[in-house]
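Query structure, 241 tokens:
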């Protein structure tokens, strides 16, 4: 195997490692997105519960007001019973009518307020059903993501082992150094020089001398002699034929 072939082998493993690492970064983000969506549904449910608390509180408040009015009526009537003068008696009758009217109005409001209770409960039931449905979906999705994370981590560990093996075959330190330095900036690092003399990495046409060097390099490889680094004049990728 020539040094360039060994480098291409190494690059193949590195390509897989890059993809796995990208996926490993992406998976928790996808999980976080789903979980965030669920917290929106949870907020709807909280709002529906708050709505019910409000509606129940309103009914209780009206009840208390009605009780107070009933007590007031009872007292007015009791006092009226003990009155001697006709004039005072009539004044009390007017007051009693006013309070009675207030109480009637309040009781109508109470009925309307109680009518709101079932719809408040229905909103909770709806929101709860939506939350439960979404949650089971999100839980299943997150479990799948966790499984995938574990699988990717295992694949990655395997690929790292493979890489250590493949790296041993790249015996020329010049090639190793060049490859390692370039691979953070350019990918892939090793690219074919096409028959038209174009770098397959950046697609720039190379001067004829690069084609000659690449051909000579291929020949050196065939003869088992040490190869040189032939690089693209534009992007610096290692070129081979
Ligand atoms: Zn190039």
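Result returned for the query:
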């Amino acid at each position: 195997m020539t040094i360039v072939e060994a480098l291409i082998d190494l690059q193949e493993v590195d390509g897989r490692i890059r993809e796995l690492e990208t996926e490993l970064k992406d998976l928790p983000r996808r999980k976080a997105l789903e979980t965030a969506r669920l917290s929106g549904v949870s907020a709807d449910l909280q709002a529906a519960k708050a709505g019910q608390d409000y509606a129940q509180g309103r009914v209780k408040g009206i009840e208390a007001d009605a009780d107070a009015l009933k007590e007031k009526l009872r007292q007015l009537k009791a006092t009226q019973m003990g009155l001697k003068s006709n004039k005072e008696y009539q004044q009390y009758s007017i007051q009693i009518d006013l309070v009675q009217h207030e109480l009637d109005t309040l009781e109508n409001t109470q009925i309307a307020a109680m009518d709101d209770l079932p719809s408040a409960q229905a909103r909770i039931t709806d929101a709860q059903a939506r939350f439960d449905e979404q949650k089971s979906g999100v839980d299943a999705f997150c479990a799948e993501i966790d499984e995938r994370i574990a699988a990717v981590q295992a694949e990655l560990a395997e690929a790292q082992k493979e890489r250590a093996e493949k790296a041993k075959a790249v015996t020329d330190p010049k090639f190793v150094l060049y490859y390692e330095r370039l691979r953070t900036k350019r990918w892939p690092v090793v690219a074919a020089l096409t028959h038209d003399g174009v770098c397959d990495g950046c697609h720039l046409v190379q001067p004829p001398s690069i084609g000659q060097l690449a051909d000579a390099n291929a020949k050196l490889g065939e003869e088992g002699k040490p190869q040189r680094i032939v690089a693209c004049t534009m992007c610096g990728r290692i070129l081979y034929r």
